[in-house]
User: What shape does this take?
Amino acid sequence: KILKDFELSGADMIVCTDAGLASDDNRKFNAKNNRKFITIQPIKKLTQEKKEWALDRARSLKNDPIKPGENPNMVMADLERKGWRVEGVKGYFSLDDIDEDDPKNYNRVFYKEKILPPDEHNIQQRMIVTYSIHNIQQRMIVTYSIKYKHFMERKRANDIQRAQKLINSKNIKKIDVKNSEDVRRYIKSSHTTEDGKEASNATFELDMDVINSEARFDGFYAVCTSISSQKMSVAELINVNKGRWEIEESFQIMKTEFRSRPVYVQNNDRIKAHFTTCFLSLLVFRILEKEVNSRSANLITAPELVDTLRKMRISKIDKFYTGSFTRTNTTECIQNFAQMRCDCEVVTKGKMDSYVKNSKK
Assistant: This one.
């Protein structure tokens, strides 16, 4: 319909889709008439062999050097097959060699690439996903990001908290409905007692096996594309890949930290005004997040920054102002960026007026 409405039939274009539009038919359609595609490849739906390759952290030669009797060529060949790379660094390495506490690595995206030859199929759970269609050779790029890992950890922590509230509510009708994308997937039920006897009432608890299983995928992301390496580099594909989950993270911040939902307005103009305010707030917050982290030796996460800002209260005592908050690394970085001090000195009204004036520039 889009091709017809905008007269794009035969146009040289790249169609980017999420996993919901990554079906075999869509890949066929988007590989015709000068069209190419970049689509999300859910790692969980790969065959066991490809899944293990995607999640393999590779052998760390720092922690596990080549032993006497081992064939160095075979070791290096295996590292090249399973190892990771990053823009600006030569050679292959293990994810275990990365210092995840180093702020320099926070925004880096590590990757590995596999060529999926024509007519290769992936059979999983009675479903056949054709990766290479009509002799189209596809590239699968798997990425690992510390920032994305932290985002997934925060998201799951929120889901677990919601699951625990359901358990505490003891509302069986609400709990006993399973969905692969629902927080109830983290809940397991038991209809027997500890000695193995059948219980009259079901008991519910967090399913740690499911939680630990999902944690394996934290930080990993994959895309498939019909675009050759000559026409689009891995770095360009990574930017497309990175942009997807950063958009998702932004919506998560708006819903969780900014509490943009539910919306208690009905008039169209007021709904637009509400979300315009939310998007402008997100823009200002993202700028602040970047500036604050550039002044910090340790990573300051979005939830931590929002929580700190909400607690940075100023008290007025007679004609003076002073900070009524606990001094931390985050408050230091915020005040350094804002060029103001409220936690270690008494601020006069004139100076506070100048702080307010500067904040409006």
Q: What stands out?
A: The longest strand covers residues 198-206. The chain has a mean pLDDT of 84. Residues 73 and 84 are 18 Å apart (CA to CA). The longest helix spans residues 268-294.
